[in-house]
Amino acid sequence: APDISVEKVQGHLTELQKIAEANGGNRAHGEPGYKASVTYLQEKLEAAGFTTQVQEFTEGGATGYNLVADLPGGDENNVLMAGGHLDSVTEGPGINDNGTGSATLLETALAAADSGYKPTKHLRFAWWGAEELGLVGSTEYVKSLSDDDKSKINSYLNFDMTGSPNPGYFVYDSANEPEGSADVQKTLTGFLDEGGVEAEATDINGRSDHAAFSEAGIPNGGIFTGAEEIKTEAQAQKWGGEAGKAFDPCYHADCDTTENVDEKALDVNADAIAKSVWKLSE
Ligand code: PHE
Ligand code: CA
Ligand code: ZN
Ligand code: ZN
Ligand code: ZN
């Protein structure tokens, strides 16, 4: 897999923040900043050669949108999916939550297209709407799949917060999710290790968009750098940063801006995510 350029990922974060600033300060479901975020990603993916679809749904009286992008080629009966939510809360621009996961996935997708990668499996990326209102977009997507469609998804990787400013390095504990994949967990953990960080398995308890896939029997996993929880002394020894302080003190707040991202965490996770997508799709 190519090394993912953290500068390019940060460039997308800057654009997402500009989108929020031009649209009342957020990129939330039902607000113009959300739709503008979808358009920003869709144009880049189409230009790179992806086939994109925007799936609409209704939540709270407003239209929501999932963006789904397929890399042409590979075995359509054996699909590797990777996704994360693109919506923010109404309180702020949502740059760590979840501009980071969204921008990392975008760069990974663009790197796959630009490098001419021809995976054995079919690669599909997704950016979910209305996660912050209760995992709505991803749930709508899974609901729209037939049993046959579901059986063709080999596994789903989820990335929700990958650059917390006081970062933890967490991989979803497969033993704690209905269809948690030990293989996905091992792959993500192994590539984080290659990047120089010792990850911890953590119980996500269905708190992000992998949940609908898990409930539908689709193997899954993901990476997370921590939200409102407090970093322990042992974690600060291992990962740096500040013990006794939240992994993301700006979680769901107006200060979740481009200042609220740890560059090293963003880089290490982006590289581990790309390596995992390549490994799990070849
Ligand atoms: N889903 C939470 C949010 O978007 C963040 C989160 C991700 C929490 C993964 C726990 C685990 O606000
Ligand atoms: Ca890199
Ligand atoms: Zn959130
Ligand atoms: Zn989130
Ligand atoms: Zn979430």
Describe the structure.
- The chain has helices spanning 6-21, 32-48, 95-114, 136-143, 147-151, 182-194, 210-215, 233-239, 263-281, and strands at 51-59, 62-71, 75-85, 121-128, 153-159, 170-172, 200-202, 220-224.
- The protein is α/β, with parallel strands linked by helices and 282 residues long.
- Strand 6, helix 6 and strand 7 (200-202) form a beta-alpha-beta unit.
- The chain has one domain (6-281): Zn peptidases (Aminopeptidase, 3-Layer(aba) Sandwich), CATH 3.40.630.10.
- 57% of the residues are buried.
- The model has no long low-confidence stretch (mean pLDDT 98).
- Strands 1-2-4-3-5-8-6-7 form an eight-stranded mixed β-sheet, with helices on both faces.
- The structure holds phenylalanine, calcium ion and zinc ion (ZN) (3 copies).
- One zinc ion binds at residues 85, 97-98, 131, 160-161.
- Keywords: Disulfide bond, Hydrolase, Metal-binding, Protease, Secreted, Signal, Zinc.
- This is M28 family peptidase.
- Its main location: secreted.
- It comes from Streptomyces daliensis.
Based on the model shown, name its key terms.
globular, eight-stranded mixed β-sheet, Aminopeptidase, 20% strand, alpha/beta, binds phenylalanine, M28_fam, binds zinc ion, binds calcium ion, 39% helix, hydrolase, 282 residues, single chain
Summarize the structure.
By secondary structure, the protein is an alpha/beta fold. It has a single domain (6-281), classed as Aminopeptidase. The chain contains 9 helices and 8 strands.
